[in-house]
């Protein structure tokens, strides 16, 4: 009984959508149903944000294409908007069907900018004979070279005119590109301290809570796996940058770059203590406040307590 009622309700739904129990309704009958549901041409143009349903139905060329709309029959602006959601691989596949649309220069220019963010060549006129689709291939090859040897990858970009031979341009490229291997990047920045300096200045920590700012910093510039000179350099550069972005807060709290350095180191040690499964006796809030204020006596006890709460609730600052 229940199955019979379900079949009746399902058949009524299919008939409303242009189907029958045996399959599709005849093409002309289905079209007449769709057209008859719209009283006049003016009303048709107002349905679904101004898209003419009758025009979309006419773009169907055969029964095998039922429900599929040819992008070439749509306005160019709408077709380009649809294709802009594709990645490079899908866009190449789409060019097998819609060659003129999928090979459009604006589409590939947008794909280059969204993937790499900043390249010197993207703000210049492309050399003759070089398309944005070809530029995308060159960038992909450069990334593979970088993954093998970071220095060789950067030199490859500069030899192709993609990056200017400038530490600031290299830093912008690293800051805006999320596909770089972070382990290779750490090695490269350890060797190129000039690029590291420019990369740090690209961060804006204004009005950010110290642990959150430190997390953002280590998302772009990954911390080394062990303590050493490089970690101390990163914390020092971060401390100066954080103070430069928040001068009013530093005066209000009475903090200096050296005091922020102590706090950052304390937060990293606390993160390891609270998150490591090997540490059984976790550091308490009172212990953290006492140990931190021994190293930096001018720091407010309430402020240090808020730092502990942030690590306890959110987690590691350099994970």
From TrEMBL:
Pfam families with a match to the protein in the record: F-box-like, Sec7
Organism of provenance: Echinops telfairi
Origin superkingdom: Eukaryota
F-box domain residues: 68-111
Protein name: F-box only protein 8
SUPFAM superfamilies registered for this protein in UniProt: F-box domain (SSF81383), Sec7 domain (SSF48425)
Classification via InterPro entries: F-box-like_dom_sf (IPR036047), F-box_dom (IPR001810), FBXO8_F-box (IPR048003), Sec7_C_sf (IPR023394), Sec7_dom (IPR000904), Sec7_dom_sf (IPR035999)
Matching PROSITE patterns: FBOX (PS50181), SEC7 (PS50190)
SEC7 domain boundaries: 128-314
